[in-house]
Amino acid sequence: MKPFLFLGVRPEDAPADDEYAAMLRCTGLDESTLRRVRLEAAPLGDVDLDAWSGIVLGGGPFCVSDPEDTKSAVQRRVEADLARLLDAVVPADHPFFGACYGIGTLGRHQGGVVDRAHPEPVGAVTVELTAAGRADPVMGVGPTRFGAFVGHKEGLSALPPHAVLLATSSTAPVQAFRVGRNVYATQFHPELDVDGLATRVEAYRYDGYFDPAEAAQVVADARTSGVRTVPGVLRAFVERYVHPRGDAGPGRTVLGDEMGVRQG
């Protein structure tokens, strides 16, 4: 099979590594079949879509709705890299799954409204699938209603006009959507469990998601929320797009022309 490409944007090593481990666990892939590139570390360069079964974009502390004059040079470069990638992904309808930061990135790229009208505090929410979500081969693998963890300052107030709404919640009108047949994004974190949430709470204690003095309570509330695992949407995404179109082979590097990514 061709590998999948995981794009991380977290500058902090502990949550970045924990997120990648969670993505490996939830997709059922290993490091040879889910290859990681940390976008905050270096420019992405060109991506050969034909080299990858699909692309997964993780979350992070960036917000696309941040005022431009407050964005760091790294954030602006990451946004430009992802916009250029989506310029290729969306017309090709290439398999793509963006989580949390990914929904703002894809939503803005496709003409949706991304703003601060529907933030959700760090913790558990109940996600509800729409009729289209229940019928979707990726989002429809679980129950109609399920618990998941969120934590975001921005969200979509309006979908891109051509997008399909797949899931919603009482606190955020857009929890998941699809563009075309194969390009997905979720506001909730499909990879996140309680221990992963605790890692992120510690890493982002002073980033404005919650009162730093309440960090322990945020984690305690998550542990008693009843959320253990999210339905296997990431595994469903991977299984849908695994095709025996050649094997990258073990030990091949994620960077460089041979694996379809040329870093600038």
From TrEMBL:
Organism: Cellulomonas dongxiuzhuiae
UniProt cross-references to PANTHER family, sorted A to Z: GLUTAMINE AMIDOTRANSFERASE YLR126C-RELATED (PTHR42695:SF5)
Protein name, entry field: Glutamine amidotransferase
Ranges where the Glutamine amidotransferase domain occurs: 50-192
Transmembrane segments: none
UniProt keyword annotation of Cytoplasm present: no
Alphabetical list of Pfam families matching this protein: GATase
Keyword annotations of the record: Glutamine amidotransferase
UniProt cross-references to InterPro entries, sorted A to Z: ChyE-like, Class_I_gatase-like, GATASE
